[in-house]
Structure formats: structure tokens, C-alpha cells
Amino acid sequence: MRYIFKILILGDPDAIQFYALRAFEESGEDKGTYLEWYKEVRVLEDVCDLEIDVISSISADLDDLLPMVDGIIYFLNPQVEGELELFGMILPDIFSVKRDIPTIVIFYDQNGMLPISVNELLENVWVNYPSLEAFVNLLPKDFHQALQSLSLAMINGDTPLNIENAWMRFPIFIQMANIYYDNKNYYYAAQAVKKASIIAEIYNKEEYFIICEQAAFLYSKINLYLEASKILEKSDKTKSINFKNLHADAMIREGNLFFNRKEYEKAARKYETTAQWSSIESLDTRLTNDAFKLAINSWISACNVENAFKILDNLRHKLVLSILKEICEKIQAVADYLIEINNFEQAREQLYIAVNKFQREGLFEELKDLTSQLTKILIHIFKHFVQDENILAAKNIYDELEIMWGSYKVEKINLDSHLEKSIILLLEEKNFGMASVLINKLNSRQLRQNLAKIRDDFDDKFTELKKNEILDYNNTGIDIIREYVEAERDIIIEMNTIKINEAKELSKNNEIRKAATHLKIQAVYLKNIGKEEISNQILTKSLDLLLEGIIFEEFFKIFNTLADEMKTKYLSRIYSKYTQKLKELKKSDDYKRKETILENSNKIFRNQELYEESKEISLIFIEIIKEEILIILENEENIIGIKKATGLLKKVSNISEAYFEKEKSKIEFDDIFKKIAEIYINLDDLPSANSYTDRIENKEFRNEIHKRIEKLEAEKSAKASKKAEDTFKVEVLKERLSIIQTRGREALLEHDKELRKRKALKRNYFKEALSNIEQQKYMEAMELYKKSIDSLNKRQDYNLAGVSLAMVSLLLIKEDKINEIKKIFTETKKKLSSLGKLFSETYPVLLINYIIDLKEFHDEEKIKEALGGFDNLPLFEEELILLYDYLGKDYREEREVDVDQDIVGLSREKLGDLSKLKIDMDQKYGKIKSLMVDIRSDRDIILKNRNAMRKRYYSDILKLLGSHNFKDASVMYYDLATRIAKRKDFKTSSLLILLHGLVLIKVGEHIKSIKKNINEFLDGLGLNKKYVKETYYILVILFIIDVKLNNLDRDRLKINKILEILPLFEEEKELIEFEL
């Protein structure tokens, strides 16, 4: 079976919220002062749908909540004095509720196990509060045990019992039962023995049957036979039935007490309840029937025959007939009693119900007595109504008497004297129709004739009198109406004159809208009093004023109130003036207003079938649209302006198609198309410009635009060719750059060797040039380098000659004479003749040629970037200083050679350490990757739980992040992680430590300092350190720290994948966006 219950969880709001969140693994719905969960709990073969309300605020109103719940769970920390005091205050409130609420106490400390004896806590609750059950140190994952225990108690309407430790309560229940019995408190003794019997049954104790009989005995001593019967249902069915019979007898005795006190309704309900219960429990049939008879007899004594007969509907037919015969006299006695107290109406009602029942069951002998008595009552009521001159009610009762006389064999009684009085009263009230009906019911023929004659005399006099009254009334009314019409006409004329004059005055003062409204109000008034024709005339005056003032918005509103037959006449009369005012609208800058006015104008003229006039208005409309298009194109010479213009052109097209046939060809748009074409030309959209140029009808305009477009297309084609050529050159340069970069790496490997060669030649070739560089005599230095090129080429030292050429180029570039480089290179190559190819293919010369080609593109940035390749050349310190000065960099005495250290410059030992580090990092990343699946699947749940605690834990931190106060935010993350770790929620605390680390990385905190904080946190966890260190979030922050400490570029890209699955708030997402 399925049950629906409501449970209230009380205690320290912080503790029980956190406990519920962990127990249910989801956040509850916030209802202000409490959180709400819905859970399904299975209890044996039953299912309970529980609404669980967890108090979240101390301001919750328990007076409202307690009466509404079915069960209570109270979390209590016995170590906190304040909680014990609060428990002592709330418990009486729980007990004060009029019904017993099953209640469980859970002794729990959110910071760990309670250092108090479990037996001591349980015994204290069981002895002092026998109706309560208790659990100690119940973990959130085992919370279902408490819910099942409470659900079972709510289903059985009993106090809760924890089956797992019930054996401990058994001797306590027996001991308490003896104490209660000695104090003659049999009810509580019975309750205690009953609980002991339940425990005895659970553990199959031999004394189970004896304990059940003891409990039944105790309940019987206080007349709780039904409770006694329930206890013995399993152990002794015979005794159980006997106790049920005793319970039924007790209920009948209680009904007898009510009957003897003449509280018949209460007695009847008690007897009826007894009979129905006995029938359901299948007790003795005689007992059940006797109870039903007692209930029927009590209902009749209570003058409620209807309820008595309702009971009969559920009994066997033979028994029903027997009971009806027995109660016939009783019903008559009740009727006599009601007559005695002058309650004729109720007596009549009760007898009608009885007559219907007896007739339906075919008891005609008894029916005679009932109908005879009912007839007597109806006659009495009839006479009473006649005496009170309540003729209509008397007529209805007489109709009932006729039915009784006709349907049942009841002796008819002559009531002519009372009928005569009723007829005379009806004639006096001029109710001739009903009087005629009653005259026909008289038994005496003579009396019928006399009364018929009296009726006719009354009728003639009344008709004549009525006729004269109507004639006098009509004559008087005609005279009054005539005078009224004349007076009204004079008043209306005078009133209209005044209103028109007032409107004219307002119009002179340029208050046209106010004047029109003034006349409209008068027109509405005239229409309301039925003067519609005059009302329409006043409205036309109002329309004339509005038209004169070009206030079309109000004009349309008032025009719609005109009578249909007046609209066409009015528009025809004012047409010429109307079109004149529309043309004046062109001066207005508000296009939307003009558009609305012209559309409405077209509409009202076409609605009145004035089509020719409507065409003229449409032409005005088109002209206004064309003007607006040109204004738009002048102000917005872009695609948006063209779109607006084409939209309006489409509107013109729609108007033309709808209202014109021949006239359509007369509308031209050359100036508009020309303007659009010019805009497209300026926007470099020549196809679209061509499209609109072709639509221009004026040949001169069209040819002019076409020539301009052709010229632009030719220029565009030339630019495209030049662009393609430049693109090709750029691609070639990219290929050359790739070759140069490769050669540069090779040159770097030969750097030290080449530098030694140059140092050997320094005194003969470079010393003077270097001195000039130091003295900033750059052109003298350039000449010396130029001479060294030839000398070095003669020595067939082409690479060093190329280095000298590079220095010549650098000095010329610095002096902004880059064009001379190509000339020097050509001369040098010419001197070398066939050996020039060897010189040209050296790295320095290739680099110089590349720089010369870059100059054609005027790309100074790329030239400087290419000059960075000089860093690979074997240059002296003075040359390097010159190079770095030109590039805008600081010269470093010991340059860092940018070579892959995995290959060049590392010892075998260092290579081994690097390889070991890479393997270690790969293993760490593999471990993180294996956990990513679980984190990704749990992400939504974790985020949902964090949202539930957002207001309580995270709001201050998120505010700090929003204001970029990252330092304080990192401190709060660390403190919160420490607090939550104490509650054993290591998953959440490790996430907070990760966020702590990310915040510090974002603000540039030293990596070693961050690692120190994390290690301090882990050391504070004691035995849990190893477990927490292996969680996903701690592994991630340690991995990021290792990447940054060891400067491992290859692992940096992995970090983004690791961080993007974190369950973060929107405000926290900026923490994963930092430079690695």
C-alpha cells in the first residue's frame, strides 16, 4: 500500500542542513525558513512518499509547522548545553499537539563521534520519554534506517521502534509496566506491555503469548476492548473475537445512555456505528440487527424518519418488512407529538416520507392509517392558511388534499365554506384566474353559480375602470410629450449655438484640438439622448476644425464615430481641401506620422467607395515616400540606408499595383536609382551598382554611371593583378624564410667555430671598424667592412665575407640607406665571377637578400624580425651591441642560445634526469586522465550541491572575485577548505584547495609558496592525508605546480583540458584563464 506523510527535521540548522545534503546527495528546495525534499521509502510491503522539511532558520514558526506534520526527527548534540535547553523547550510543544506525533531523537555531532556511552544515551531517552525512539552516531549514509522506523510508526499509528536495538528495550518495557500497574495507571502499563509483546514477537520469545494476554487484560480493565482484541489477533483469535463482542456491547451501552438522556440523534449515530462495525468485523448477526433496530428507533424518536429509512436500504428485504410493521405505530406517535407542539409542517414531511416508503414496500394495511393521518394534517394546515388569508399556500395544500383523495382510499371531506372565503379574497385581489379554478372545485352547485356571478361583476367593473385609466393617461402623456419636444428643441438649439461659439473662440486661440474635443463631447451627449442626426452635424463641425489644423490623428478617430450615411457625403464635400492639407504634410519631418496619415486616408476613402479620390491621395503618398527615400540615402550612404530605401520602394510598388493601372508607367525613380548606384560605387559593390543603373530610364544618367563603373572595374582589375603578384612574392618569401631559418640553426651550431676564426682575423680586418662603431662613425666603419668583403673572398672565406656584408647592411639600414645594399652585393658578386654562387649561398648573404626583398613591401616589423637572425652570426661584442641597440633590446653579455636542450648542450646525466621527469609527469597526467571520466559525470551533481550552499559559504568569496580582490579570496578559500575538511567532506575541501592555488597563480604568487600552503593543508589531515592527496583536485593543482616549476612547455596544453571540467560558478571561471 502507498502512503503520503510529512516529516519535520529539527535541530541546529547548520548541522541538519549539511547532514541532509549528504544523506540525500542533492540540494533541497528553499522555502524560506526550511528546505524541502521529496523521497520514497519502502517499509516491508508498503511504500511511503515522504515530504521532508529541514529547518534552516531559527525564526521558523513551529506553532504552525508542528500540527501539520506526521512525524518528527530531532538532531541533538548532548555535549552542547544550548541544544539540550532548546530540546527541553520544544518537546512540550510536540507533546501539546492534540494527536501523538511519532518522534525520533538522533544524537549526532557533525565534527565526529560522540564521546558518551551509547547505552547511557539510549536508556535516558527510553526511561524518561517512553514514546520516543533514539539513534546514536547515525551516519548520513544510514539515515534511511531512521526514516524506515518513523514510517512504520506513522503507518501503524504507534510510537517508533528501532528493531536493531529493540532487545535492549524489552526489560525496560517490562519494568515500566510493573511500575505503572502498581500505580494503577493501567493505560500506560498496557502500552508498555504491548511494546514488549512486539519485541517478543520480533525475537520469537517463548513468553510472547503470555505477554499478549497480559496486555489484553490491562486494556480490558479500562474498557479498551478493541485494543485488547487487536493484540490477541495473532496469538488467540477466539479471545480476540470475544473482546470485539465486548467492545460492541460497550458501544450499545453508551448509545443507551444517550437515549435515556433523550439525546436521540447521538444515540442513533452510536447505534448505527456499532451495527456497521459489527457487520464489517463479521460478529454475531443478532447483535448487528439489534443495533440497526435500535438506531432506526432512535432516529424516529428524533423525528427524522428519513435517516431511519436510509438504514433500511442496506438490510435484507424480509428484515425490512418486519421492522416497518413494528415501527408504523411509532411513526404515527411521532406525527401526533409534532401536531401537539403545532409543528404541522414537519409532521406532514415525516408522514410523506413514511407513506412513500410503505407504498414502495407494498404494506397497504399500514399505509391506510398513515394516509388517513396525513389527510387530517393537510386539512388542518389548509384551514390554518385560509384563516391567515395566505391564499396561495392554501391553494397548494388543497391540491395535495385532492391528490390524497384521488390516489388513496381516504374519505373526502367537504371544505366549501373555507373555499368560499378563499375565492372572495382572490376576487378582492382581482386574481380572477385562480378564483375561477377554485370555484370549479366547490361541491355545492348553487354556491358555484353565486360565486361565478360575483366574479363576472367584479371582472366587468375592473375592465371598465382600467380602460378609463389608460385613456386618461394617454391624453395626459401626449400633451406632456408635445410640450417636452418643443422645449427640448429650443434647449438643444441654444446649447449647440453656445458650444459652436465656444469652439470658435478656442480655435482662434490656436487650441484646435481642445475645440474639436469640446464639440465631440456635445455630439456624444446628443447621440445619447437620441438626437443622432444633430449629433452628426456637430461632429462634422469638429472634423472641419481638425482638418483645418492638420490634426489627422484625432480626425480619423472622430470620423469613425460618424453615421455611415454621413461619411460619404462629408468626404465628397471636403475632398479638395483634404488633398490640399495632405500636400502641406510634405513640410513635416516626421515620416512615420505622414505614412500613417496617408494610409488611413486611403483606407477611409476606399471604404466609402471613393476610388478616384483615393488614387489622387495615393499619388501624394508616393511623392512623399520618394522624398523620404532621397533623404535617407543622403543621410545614410551605406547598406543600411539602401535597405531602408528598397523597403520603401517596395511599398511604392505595392501601392502602384493595388491602386493604379495606366498611371503606373508615369511614376519614375531615376533620381533614386542613380543615388543608390552611386552609393554602391562608393561601397565598391559594382555589380549591385550596375543592377540599379540598368533601371534608370534617363539615357544620359544611365550612360554617365555606366562609364564611371567601367573605369572603376578596370582599376579594380589592375589592383587584383598587383595583389596576386604580391601574394606570389609573399609565398616565395615564406619559403625562403623557412630555408633561412634552417640555415640559421645550422649557423648557430657553427657559431663558436666561426667566431674563433673571426677573432683570429680581428686585428687585420675588424679592429678599426669596431673602433669606429664604438665612436658611432658608422659610415667609416661601413667602408672598412666593405673592404674586408673582398679580402675575405680572396681567401675563399665566403661565410666570413658574408658576415662582413651583413655588418655593411646593418650599418646602411641604421643610416636609412638600405637601397645601397643591393648595389654592393651586385658589385661583390660580379667581382667573384663564377665563384659568386658560393658567396651568395652563405647564410649571411641569403639573410641579407631576404631583407632586401622585404624592403619592397615596406614591412619594417618583418625587417626587424629578420635582423634578429643576425644573432646566429659570429659577431663581436661591439657588433652585437649595435644590433641590439637597433632592435630596441637590452644586450646580454652571455647570450642564451635557443637550441633544443634535449639535443644540444646537455650532459648525459642531465639528459637522464630530463627523461625521468618526463616519464614522471606522464604518469601523473595518466592518473588525472583516468579520474576525469568520474569528475565529468559527477560535475552537475557537485555544482548543484555547491549552489545549495552558495548563500551560506560562497557569497563573500564570489563578491571578492567580482571586485578582483584575489588575495583575500585565496585566504577565504583556504579557511573554508579547512573547516569543511573537519566535517570529513574531503571532495569539497580538495576542490577549494585547488581554487585557492588557482587564485594565487593568477595573482603571480611564487609557485613554491603555493606548494607549501597545499602541503600544510594535507599535513593537517592526519590519517586522511594519503586519501585526499590522491583526489582529482589535489592531483591537478600539484600537476600545474610541477609544470610551472620545471618550465615544461609540452605539458602546458594539457592543463586547459584538465581545468575545463571543474564544477565552477560563473564568477570562478576567470580563475582558469591565466598565462602558463
Structure description:
With 1076 residues, the chain is mainly α. Among the domains are: 2-161, P-loop containing nucleotide triphosphate hydrolases (Rossmann fold), CATH 3.40.50; 238-403, Serine Threonine Protein Phosphatase 5, Tetratricopeptide repeat (Alpha Horseshoe); 750-887, no CATH class; 908-1072, no CATH class. Helix content is 73%, strand content 4%. It contains 46 helices and seven strands. Strands 2-3-4-1-5-6-7 form a seven-stranded mixed sheet. Strand 3 and strand 4 form a beta hairpin. Helix 6 runs antiparallel to helix 7. The protein is flat, with a radius of gyration of 56 Å. It starts with a strand and ends in a 17-residue tail after the last helix.
What's the arrangement of secondary structure elements?
Elements: E1 2-10, H1 13-24, E2 29-30, E3 34-43, E4 46-55, H2 62-65, E5 71-76, H3 81-96, E6 103-107, H4 118-128, E7 132-136, H5 143-156, H6 166-182, H7 186-202, H8 208-221, H9 225-232, H10 237-260, H11 264-280, H12 285-301, H13 305-312, H14 317-340, H15 344-361, H16 364-387, H17 391-407, H18 416-428, H19 432-439, H20 445-508, H21 512-528, H22 532-548, H23 552-559, H24 564-584, H25 591-607, H26 611-635, H27 639-659, H28 670-682, H29 686-693, H30 699-749, H31 751-774, H32 778-794, H33 798-814, H34 819-832, H35 836-840, H36 843-855, H37 860-867, H38 877-887, H39 908-948, H40 950-962, H41 966-982, H42 986-1002, H43 1007-1019, H44 1025-1029, H45 1032-1046, H46 1052-1059
Parallel strand pairs: 1-4, 1-5, 5-6, 6-7
Antiparallel strand pairs: 2-3, 3-4
Helix pairs in contact: 6-7, 7-8, 8-9, 9-10, 10-11, 11-12, 12-13, 12-14, 14-15, 14-16, 15-16, 16-17, 18-19, 18-20, 19-20, 20-21, 21-22, 22-23, 22-24, 24-26, 25-26, 26-27, 26-28, 28-29, 28-30, 29-30, 30-36, 31-32, 32-33, 32-34, 33-34, 33-36, 36-37, 39-45, 40-41, 41-42, 42-43, 42-45, 43-45, 45-46
